[in-house]
């Protein structure tokens, strides 16, 4: 009785996972065939993570629109050339987004990345409700993330904000899983230290 | 918690994050953390806060990006072939085409190899019966010391009446050296040549026969026609296909020059040089009719075009020999008289 239940349970789980993978695969295969419906579904499926990642790295909403479109165009080019995803389509597309952002900054000859103040201002202009949502703690956390190194920031965004596993992040940033684990640990250490310092500063300001 | 199994803090953090993603609360995870509670708590809280940031990050509307993607997809659909031709089918097609081309190349090379092999076998067995090796054999003929043959040719004029008709009667299609063969046979009494089959082309120096000395009554066109009818072709002509003779070739000194130059045409460039030398020597034997030589070279070219497969290089050889002939005519007058 218990064995039959367990067998059915694991069979359903495996079937569900295979169905999900197959759906993603079918979506990308149909997108490769330039099916407009599939292209739209692909865009709906991955637009938010891509745009959020670019928004966090760039800040300007108009630039985010342009770069997001560029990410999907490059993804389609890669599909047509036969360069496909491995294991995680989301990690594959996020890796493309990372390259697009890097190219963007390379074209601008390493213009200083958008200050967080501008980024928050842009967010508030776009959606005033964000002002209420962004507490002081969150603003400090965003500032802390901006102070991380490039790789550490990518790991934090992809790993914690987008929920991609270690292997997917490793694919996206061209690192080994072990290296990603190290980056993750050091990034969290740095974040904790920055947040502790900012808390101390804020309390000292209040005392003064 | 599994922290007991991990000495590396990176692995401990990853294990705790995996449990957090699985839905286990932070307190449950930290309850089994042991001595790592402090640093692990701060990191897990930060990770949860970062995860909550995703709702705080504004995202621009997707219309612009979607339109860009769809427009690019339409452009690709217009420029690229329909999807029915998948990459696999293209690969198969290209594979079949490559296989077909490879088969064609293999068959061509194999046929070429068999042809060359058969030709080599025939050449080794009976080269005299094969028209193609004859032209290749001419270089050996040209390599013979022509100067030594030249004086031997002096008595030939008596036979010229018999042999002059042979070039007109049996000019072989490919190798003009065949025209000299009958002469060789006729002059074999005066010139000692090795009896080997390869020596038959060596008789080509008898080309010098062609040189009609003043003592030789040069045949007119009528005589030539008579000579053609009267003189049977030598034994060699039995194996070589006949070509219709051009009577004008033998009507003058140029007819004699023809054989010389034809020999040079059939051989390599080095052989041509040697033949040109022989031409100079033959010009000495010729009468000093330089203008006639030049005129005859045009005929020579015509004949060489008919008989040789040399092409443009033959024409060059003819022109070169013609110029050397004309240049040496004035100097040759004395020697001509001496020959007479």
Averaging pLDDT over every residue of chain A, what do you get? 79
Say how many strands of chain B there are.
0
Order of helices and strands of chain B: HHHHHHHHHHHHHHHHHH
Quick one: CATH class of the largest domain in chain A? Mainly Alpha
Report on this structure.
The complex is a heterodimer of chains A (208) and B (340). Chain A has 2 domains: 28-132, Rna Polymerase Sigma Factor, Chain: A; 135-208, Winged helix-like DNA-binding domain superfamily/Winged helix DNA-binding domain (Arc Repressor Mutant, subunit A, Orthogonal Bundle), CATH 1.10.10.10. The longest helix of chain A has 31 residues, at 2-32. Chain A has helices at residues 2-32, 36-57, 61-81, 89-107, 116-126, 129-133, 136-146, 150-161, 166-173, 177-207. Chain A is an all-alpha fold and 208 residues long. Chain B has 2 domains: 2-53, no CATH class; 132-339, no CATH class. The longest helix of chain B is centred in the N-terminal third of the chain and has 39 residues, at 87-125. Chain B has helices at residues 9-21, 26-31, 37-53, 63-79, 87-125, 131-142, 146-152, 157-163, 165-169, 177-187, 199-202, 207-210, 221-230, 236-239, 253-266, 269-285, 290-307, 312-339. Mean pLDDT of chain B is 58; it is low at 133-152, 157-189, 197-209, 222-238 and 247-340. The N and C termini of chain B lie far apart (126 Å). Chain B has 340 residues and is mainly α. Chain B has 18 helices and no strands. Chains A and B meet through α2, α3, α5, α7 and α8 of A and α1, α3 and α4 of B.
């Amino acid at each position: 009785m218990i064995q039959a239940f367990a067998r059915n349970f694991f069979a359903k789980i495996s079937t569900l996972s295979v169905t999900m993978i197959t759906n993603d695969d079918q979506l990308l295969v149909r997108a490769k065939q330039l099916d407009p419906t599939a292209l739209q579904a692909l865009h709906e499926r991955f637009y938010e993570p891509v745009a959020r990642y670019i928004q966090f790295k760039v800040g300007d909403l108009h630039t985010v629109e342009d770069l997001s479109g560029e990410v999907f165009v490059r993804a389609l080019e890669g599909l047509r050339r036969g360069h496909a995803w491995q294991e995680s389509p989301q990690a594959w597309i996020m890796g493309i987004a990372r390259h697009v952002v890097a190219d963007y900054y390379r074209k601008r000859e390493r213009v200083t990345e958008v200050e967080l103040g501008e980024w928050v201002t842009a967010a508030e202009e776009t959606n005033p409700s964000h002002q209420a949502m962004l507490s002081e703690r969150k603003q400090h956390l965003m500032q802390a993330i901006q102070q991380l190194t490039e790789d550490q920031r990518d790991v934090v965004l992809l790993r914690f904000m987008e929920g991609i596993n270690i292997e997917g992040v490793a694919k996206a940033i061209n690192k080994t899983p072990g290296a990603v684990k190290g980056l993750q640990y050091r990034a969290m250490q740095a974040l904790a230290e920055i947040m502790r310092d900012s808390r101390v500063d804020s309390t000292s300001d209040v005392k003064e | 918690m599994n922290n007991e199994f991990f000495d590396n803090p990176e692995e401990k953090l990853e294990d705790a994050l995996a449990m957090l993603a699985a839905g286990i609360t932070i307190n449950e995870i930290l309850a089994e953390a042991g001595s790592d509670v402090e640093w692990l708590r701060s990191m897990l809280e930060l990770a949860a806060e970062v995860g909550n940031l995703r709702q705080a990050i504004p995202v621009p509307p997707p219309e612009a990006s979607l339109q860009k993607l769809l427009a690019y997809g339409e452009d690709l659909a217009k420029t690229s072939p329909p999807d029915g031709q998948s990459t696999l089918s293209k690969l198969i097609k290209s594979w079949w085409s490559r296989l077909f081309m490879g088969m064609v190349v293999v068959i061509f090379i194999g046929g070429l190899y068999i042809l060359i092999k058969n030709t080599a076998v025939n050449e080794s067995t009976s080269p005299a019966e094969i028209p193609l090796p004859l032209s290749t054999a001419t270089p050996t003929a040209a390599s013979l010391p022509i100067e030594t043959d030249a004086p031997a040719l002096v008595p030939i004029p008596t036979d010229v009446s018999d042999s002059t008709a042979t070039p007109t009667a049996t000019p072989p299609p490919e190798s003009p050296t065949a025209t000299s063969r009958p002469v060789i046979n006729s002059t074999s009494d005066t010139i000692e040549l090795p009896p080997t089959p390869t020596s038959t082309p060596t008789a080509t120096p008898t080309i010098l026969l062609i040189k009609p000395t003043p003592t030789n009554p040069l045949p007119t066109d009528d005589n030539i026609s008579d000579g053609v009818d009267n003189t049977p072709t030598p034994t060699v002509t039995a194996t070589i296909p006949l070509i219709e003779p051009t009577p004008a070739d033998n009507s003058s000194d140029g007819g004699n020059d023809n054989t010389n130059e034809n020999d040079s045409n059939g051989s390599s460039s080095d052989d041509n040089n040697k033949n040109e030398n022989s031409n100079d020597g033959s010009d000495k034997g010729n009468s000093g009719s330089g203008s006639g030589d030049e005129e005859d070279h045009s005929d020579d070219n015509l004949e060489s075009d008919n008989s040789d497969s040399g092409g443009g290089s033959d024409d060059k050889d003819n022109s070169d020999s013609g110029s050397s002939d004309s240049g040496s005519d004035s100097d040759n007058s004395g020697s001509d008289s001496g020959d007479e």
